[in-house]
Amino acid sequence: MAMSSSAKLSKVVKQQYMDLPQGDKVQAMYIWIDGTGEGLRCKTRTLDSEPKTIEDLPEWNFDGSSTYQSEGSNSDMYLIPCAMFRDPFRKDPNKLVLCEVLKYNRKPAETNFRKTCRKIMDMVENQHPWFGMEQEYTLLGTDGHPFGWPSNGFPGPQGPYYCGVGADKAYGRDVVEAHYRACLYAGVKICGTNAEVMPAQWEFQVGPCEGIDMGDHLWVARFILHRVCEDFGVVVSFDPKPIPGNWNGAGCHTNFSTKAMREENGLQHIEEAIDKLGRRHQYHIRAYDPKGGLDNARRLTGHHETSNINEFSAGVANRGASIRIPRSVGQDKKGYFEDRRPSANCDPYAVTEALIRTCLLSEEGDAPVEYK
């Protein structure tokens, strides 16, 4: 398995420079989503003092023609800070700054789904929508071969790897542990992790997050994972079906509830929401991966703990359904439900916005409603 050349550079030598004092200056790493809707980019600027709020962070710009976001003849794009986290790589007082991207005319870039998501979340803030997203991913070498897999074959069949323990069952735990601790340091609302069904496949969970925070925290958690993998010399893939054949795909199961669902007799509100989702299945399929459903078509086959992409289904404790109601929720008659359709490479802003539009704003049809 191939590993990156950068990972072979001496970390001890690097550390003697990282230990140097930085005076009153602060390094702020600006992070944004590029034109693919999946890739992340970043660059760093020096600030004269530690920012305490988002308002303390200046706007910035970048060359959009090099990130699939503009033409070279009109390439300046704006970076608008929207969420700030502690930097687990450079440590305090340095910051990670998640940004929205605006075009030259100050309108949202094509892959900036945060702006409309924030608007939709503000419309239902009195219902206190909570989300929790289960991000699955696969560790690969730089040659695209799954981490730890035999170079000329396959590991043993699925069965012993889910939540597995031991060198022959858990592939790449060091990456997982480093990512978990880095997220906690940064202030990301990571709430758990586990090895998944396919070897070299893992999952971390983020939440509960209210409203727009869900997208902010998941994107920063992804960024941190990319950076941790960079240090270890491996690659993280969010492809929903990285290995064809009899191997599980990778999703981003999304748990959702409102205040009414979490209170007594909330099951009635959960069932009403599921009924609305059933009447708008294709709209959600298009919103749940960056290629309008084409990526998920490789994963949602009705096998390997997935539903069929062309059919909507719901059930209690059913991991082969589109929507799963946890058994405890069925017993308590309140709580939340899990939408199992989003792909691992989904945009969490698009997913959470779609859920609000259908479940709380009662939109119908194949297109989102435009609100003034």
Automatic annotation (TrEMBL):
Recorded GO CC terms: mitochondrion
Keywords: ATP-binding, Cytoplasm, Ligase, Magnesium, Manganese, Metal-binding, Mitochondrion, Nucleotide-binding
Reported cofactor(s): Mg(2+); Mn(2+)
Entry annotated with the keyword ATP-binding: yes
Cellular compartment(s): Cytoplasm; Mitochondrion
EC number from the UniProt entry: 6.3.1.2
Predominant location category: cytoplasm
Pfam families in alphabetical order: Gln-synt_C (PF00120), Gln-synt_N (PF03951)
Catalytic activity: L-glutamate + NH4(+) + ATP = L-glutamine + ADP + phosphate + H(+)
Molecular functions per Gene Ontology: ATP binding; glutamine synthetase activity; metal ion binding
InterPro entries reported for this sequence: Gln_synt_N, Gln_synt_N_sf, Gln_synth/guanido_kin_cat_dom, Gln_synth_cat_dom, Gln_synth_gly_rich_site, Gln_synth_N_conserv_site, Glutamine_Synthetase
Record domain GS beta-grasp: where: 24-106
Name the UniProt record assigns to this protein: Glutamine synthetase
Organism: Chanos chanos
Lineage of origin: Eukaryota, Metazoa, Chordata, Craniata, Vertebrata
Gene that this sequence comes from: glulb
